[in-house]
Amino acid sequence: MAVISLTHSTVQRYPSSARRSRNEVRLQPRDGGGHRLVEFNLEVSPTAEIDTERDYFDNTVWLVSVEAEHRELTITARSVVEWADDAPEEVSIPVAWDAEELAGHPALEFALPSPRVPRLSEVRALIQELDLPPHPPAALVGANQRLREIFTYQAGTTSVATSLQEVLSLRVGVCQDFAHALLAIARELGWPARYVSGYLVPEVGAEPGDSHAWVEICAGDGRWLGYDPTHGCAAGAGHIAVAVGRDYGDAAPVRGTFMSSAPGLAPEVSVITRRDVPGGPEMDQ
Amino acid sequence: MLAPDARTTAPSIADAARLAQRATTWFADHGVDFGVFDGGTLVQRPIPFDPLPRRLARAEWEQLTRGLTQRVAALDCFVRDVYGEQRILSDRVLPRELVAGSPSFLRAAAGPAARTGPQVCVAGIDLVRVDGRWLVLEDNLRVPSGVAYSLAARRASVELLTEEMAEARPISVAEYPRRLAAELARRGAGAGTPVLLTPGPANPAYYEHRELARLLRVPLVTGDQLIASHRGCWWMDGPSPRPVSAIYHRYSPEYLDPVATPETVIGSAFLLTAWRKGTVGLANAPTCGVADNKAVFAHVPGMIRYYLGEEPLLHQPPTFTLQSRSHLSAALARVEEMVFKPVGESGGKGIMFGPSARPHERDRIRRQVEANPAGYVAQPALEVERLPCLQPDGTTEMRRADLRAFVIHGDDPWVMPGGLTRVAPSADCWLVNSSAGGGVKDTWIEGSDEWQ
Q: Given B97, B230, B231, which is nearest A103 (Cβ)?
């Protein structure tokens, strides 16, 4: 058993003062997959009105309203998660779907195109290029493994506004772009596939980790199985899920608007994930 | 079939020409405008008004009324169900893809408010008469418009056709604002004022927004005048915000809240949040658009049987979804007999009429539909009833017409006795939509003791 502490901080600065900011915050880890949320709190500066709800995808959403004038808005989520420290998970080979059965299954909506993952001819070309086996379960596992052979992980080239089409032509990106590319391939192969935002559990003794994104496939037996195309591995117990959706748009960590005479600057995000010794100093807080 | 309408034709050509002139002047003087796009810019101009009313017998209307309230009751059940348990999808009465893949299935509206209480407040159901039989052509639940034009037509009739009205005694439509206000109040949360939310003067139906606000005696507001949070909604009336209980909105729901749907910049941030939390009422509920989809339309009779356990009282033309290869090739083989409608559009946008299309246009229809079969439905082109319309010179011309009936849904459903009769802009035109230049007529349900 390990205890993971997560701190996710977003600072939105405004060149001139802003007021009436409204944000939906999806930063609270989901239970399941071998972890349990034991503590969560959200700090907002300046003083905000805060409430919470579950969204369509059963994510916990924190609703943050700041009425008064402010020059910057800081939203900090602190979570403590208990993690059953299992051996690394093998990549699962999903049970194939019967098309007729999928057509009536609630997971169908994840097999359809979504706002950020439209149906593109480039995806079919990519599947050909990856030379995937014809059997859908094997093709999916192959795509998850091999996407990183033709895509380069590179921070700073793409942003949340970069379209899938651009990512597919640039062939560079970050975890979110890898996840979108695998979603597109999986859906093209007929799989219901959803986007997952969350965190990686840091290795013992490693540097603090970052936020992450990966993909879950709904298999023909109704089980959701995790795939991490950025690392070409399974997304299992070492992946702490925060929010799920059809694509990034449904699961964005912080999304909102404000009123100001000038547009806001790009938000500064910092994430620290740490593995703590149970009963150690971090737990005393 | 045309005889009852012909009765109102004025006795002489000169009188008829004068009536046509007075009708046009009345709508212009009263500013009964509808915006039409002219070379890319919206021009507000008086909606063409034909003074010869459509006249319907009371018995026929009462039959229609029962069918309309039944239909809207089932549609309301459908909306609540698909945002909740999705029983109708699990039971495979309706293909799941029609909801899951619909851009009008607004996931940001999901929550307790979408699963409880009536979602529909006003429904605009479009009917046509074919060989004397009424058929439903379209359901408008997202933002049903047009009622104010119908109310204006009645006021014009009172002035222009006083004698004819005294004789025909059509049932009054004046109850509409009271009924709407009552249902709006029932959807209200807490103390506060109801408001009418308009996108503003750039909306084609802005006349209607102003007019309904006046008739409902509620403030007419735009999105930037509202403040919302999870605790509710306020109207910035001067320096101090006033709490809002319920909003009769004229926004397509995906534009109501820029936080919920980042594609939009208009609306008011957290307005959907407030609605989901039950701290402000919205009419119609932002969930309703899912029922307007033309492919969903094909399944409304099934919904009536499923939710109400009743046989549909109103008929509708067969509607073919085109994902199946056999439907697609059958429809494309008979383009000249079919109408193709984009599943997600309204206002007549994108509709392609096979019968009136020239050969090269039919090829274009085939190409367009083949490229996106799921984006269209096909229906047999119907030779719908034509009504006499007065020309400026006093002669009449027979033009295609439909009837938009307005159903106020709630504990005590009510159908406005009459509705908006829409007529095509010319004798050879198939579209009656106002955005396509169509005009309006008053609709008289005859046989009332009180008339107005």
A: B97
Pick the CATH number of A2-85+252-284 from 1.10.1240.10, 1.10.287.1080, 3.30.70.20, 2.60.40.2250: 2.60.40.2250
**Cα–Cα distance measured from residue B44 to residue B210, given in angstroms and rounded to the nearest whole number:** 14
Locus of tokens 């192969």: A189
Report the C-alpha gap between A154 and A174 in whole angstroms: 6
CB burial of residue A120 (10 Å; 0-12, 13-18, 19+): middle
Domains located in chain B, CATH noted: 3-314+382-446 (no CATH), 320-380 (3.30.1490.270)
Mean per-residue pLDDT, B377-401 = 95
The whole-angstrom distance between A197's CA and the closest CA on chain B is 18
Between B96, B111, B230, which is nearest A104 by CB? Answer: B96
Whole-prediction pTM value? 0.94
User: What pLDDT, on a 0 to 100 scale, did the predictor assign at position A208?
Assistant: 67
In whole angstroms, how far apart are CA A170 and each of A154, A166, A181, B178? 11, 6, 12, 60
CA separation for the pair A281, B143 (Å, rounded): 58
Say if A82 is an interface residue toward chain B (CB within 8 Å): no
B365 CB-near residues (< 8 Å, 6+ apart): B335, B340, B352, B354, B357
Give which of B90, B97, B277 to mutate to test A binding, by max A Cβ within 10 Å: B97
Instruction: Pinpoint the residues of chain A covered by CATH 3.10.620.30.
Output: 99-250
Task: State which residue of chain A sits closest to B91, comparing Cα positions.
Answer: A104
Choose the closest CB to A63 out of B110, B263, B273.
Answer: B273
For residue B262, list chain A residues with Cβ-Cβ distance below 8 A: 249, 255
Tell me the pLDDT tens digit for each residue of A128-150. Answer: 999 999 899 999 999 999 999 99
Contacts A57 to B, Cβ<8 Å: 107
CATH 2.60.40.2250 occupies which residues in chain A?
A: 2-85+252-284
Pick the CATH number of A99-250 from 3.10.620.30, 3.90.330.10, 3.40.50.1390, 3.40.50.150: 3.10.620.30
pLDDT of res. B433: 84
A161 CB neighbours in chain B (<8 A) are: none
